[in-house]
Predict the structure.
Amino acid sequence: MISTESVLESGDQPCIRLEPLINTHLPEKATPTGGSLTDGSSKVTANGLHDIENRILRITGFYGYNPGYSSHRREDGSESNAETPGSETSEESQSYQTCTNTALKVLGGLLLVLCVSSSWVGTTQVVKLTFQSFSCPFFISWFSSNWNIFFFPIYYSGLVVTTREKQTPIQKFRECSKLFGEDGMTLKLFVKRTAPFSILWTLTNYLYLMALKKLTATDVSALYCCHKAFVFLLSWIVLKDRFMGVRIVAAIMAITGIVMMAYADGFHGDSFVGVALAVGSASTSALYKVLFKMFLGSANIGEVAHFLSTMGFFNLIFISCVPLILYFTKVEHWGSLSSLPWGYLCGLAGLWLVFNILVHVGVVLTYPILISIGTLLSVPGNAAVDVLKHEVIFSVVRLAATCIICLGFLLLLLPEEWDSVTLRFLATIADKKSEEHGEELTESSVQTRSRSRANGTVSIPLA
């Protein structure tokens, strides 16, 4: 093709001639005109690919096809989402860490359940052994309650080991004493806040020990589980907690178990007195827990340790006169201090302290429901010891009463939203079944179409 400049120089009239288009082939191939089109080659290539791909997608009837959506736009989109794999890996690592923490918490809770149950069974059985040589229940209760003084030192030692606490014990004790008010603990607040809780604590332990003198360990531990029903009734009346019909049923079952337990040997004799003492222990324990929730419900573990140690000091200072009065009045008489069974007494007090530590610490570290299950498991644990070691034979009425009380205890462990959670769970199962049924229908229709095509029957869609 001759350029226009050479035509003008020759003086002839310019002749215009149409030539066929050279670029009839694919744009990727080189053009014979040299490098005059190199600047626009990339644009021509991209636009050519764009047009060809759009035509192919239009002809083949690609589902979801949008005109102008070609490969170079998909490449841009892939570049913009280049960080997606990294974010996915971070989300996976976070979810894996969350699952690991939950699994460790559940495993720790199961281990804690065994420890709570074992310590409570051990405490009950050691009490029965102690009564064989030393039958002074109030002295045992007073001596064991004094060991609550060690609660705060044990808490501070664990805090130093785990977090390397820089505060001195006195500074930490003063910090936790804010539980009594902004000014800390004064003598008036010490007596006002500690006295009712310490009295209820002592009554609970004393009535529990008195019941163990009349009944077997299995019966007393089963009757003590009724405190959960009493806590619900008091919380509903005093704290205005939410009313739940299933918990009312559980409370009725607990009362039924109590009546059946008292009726097992007739409404007379030591059996009836023992049932009354055990129910009294459960009632004072429920009152203690409701008052604790009312006045100290927002306390952390450090403040709880401080409060229990304070109760231990109150017990040592103000209640020490009661064992002396019982001693001089010959109600509870013991010989010299050297004749006391210090091994049993220290073992009993240590197990009781371990049980209280596990209960109060376990509520913070794991799920509170596991602590309640650990307390419930003490019933079959004590039953196994009574049958294997003490050769106790349980009547049918006592077994039925124990089972009813335990079943009511389990009903009380249901969460407040258990009905809505159950309905959502059933709805999820129904949705999954409907989806599976729909997938089965789709697969069967696909198989029917493939069989019809194999037999030569082809459905031609209308244009």
